[in-house]
Structure formats: C-alpha cells, structure tokens
Amino acid sequence: IYIKGNTYLTDQxxxxxxxLRNYPSFILSTKSNIKKKLLKNEIIKKVTINKKIGNVxxxxxxENTPVFIYENKTILSNGKSVDxxxxxxxxxxKVDEDMLNKLAEKYNNxxxxxxxxxxxxxxxxxxxxxxxxxxxxxxxxxxYITLYKITSINEYIKxxxxxxxxxxxxxxxxxGNYFEKFKN
Length: 184
What we know:
The protein is α/β, with parallel strands linked by helices.
C-alpha cells in the first residue's frame, strides 16, 4: 500500500480509514469502496485509488488544509471543522458561520511561512469594514487586515527589517498601509 499527497494525515491514518489495515483480499477491496471510506474523513478533499499487478494499491489524496483553531476545533480551508489537533493560530472571539467560512477560504491564500508567524486571530470589524481581523504575530507585532486584502500580509517578511528598526507596534494593512509604534 502506497500513500501519496498527504501532509496532515499520517499514512497509517489513511490506511486505517480505508479499511486496508489488515490487508483484506485484493480482489474484494474495490476502488469505489476504499474511496467512499476515505471521503468520510473531512480532511480528505479528493482521493484517487490505483491498483497494480502484484497486489499493489496506490492511494493519492488531496487534503483540505487545516487553517486555524476555533472553539476547540480545527477549521479546514473548506470551512468544515474536525476534532484533530494541529499547531495553528486560534480565532479568539465569536464569528458567524458565514464569516468563519470566508476567513477559512481566504486564509488559505496566505503563504505557509507567514502562517507560521501568526499566533492569534481576532475578528475586529469597524464602521468601514465588516471583514476586518487583527493578527497577533509571534514576534510581538499586530497586523490589521481585511479579507479583501489578506494576501498583502505575505509582504510581512519584507517589511520586518523596517519594523524591527522602529520597534514593536501595529501594522495597518487594512487601510493606509502604515505602522504605528507601541507607546511606552
């Protein structure tokens, strides 16, 4: 049994979910049965099963990306939630389901390197933008962002040297693209 394309699920989890753990009959293990069992796992978006001569089964999966933690559940890029834990930022306040789904979808457009730098997310709408969030960064800075401009946070690493010269503060990428140093 060969597993390809998985990042968030282990090979063993996929084998267990597929029903192939105890190596059942190669002939009786139909591709459609294996696929149906695997698609019950919310993390799996798509799956392809290939059977080859010599009792070889190749399972190729495409996963829904875990994006953040909300109410002790992991939210996936498709907006669904799972109980499996990952080391992800936490959405710390209540949001409605529509906003949660929008955030999950848009958050997936942030570079992985930047995602690792975000520790908390707070829904923080104002009079101008109802899709505004505050990201707490691991380095002590804060970043205001809107879902419309969420990919602008991908420039954070390029901006970091200039921010470090000024000191810690709040980067407003939601409007105006400016930095405000914390007051001592």
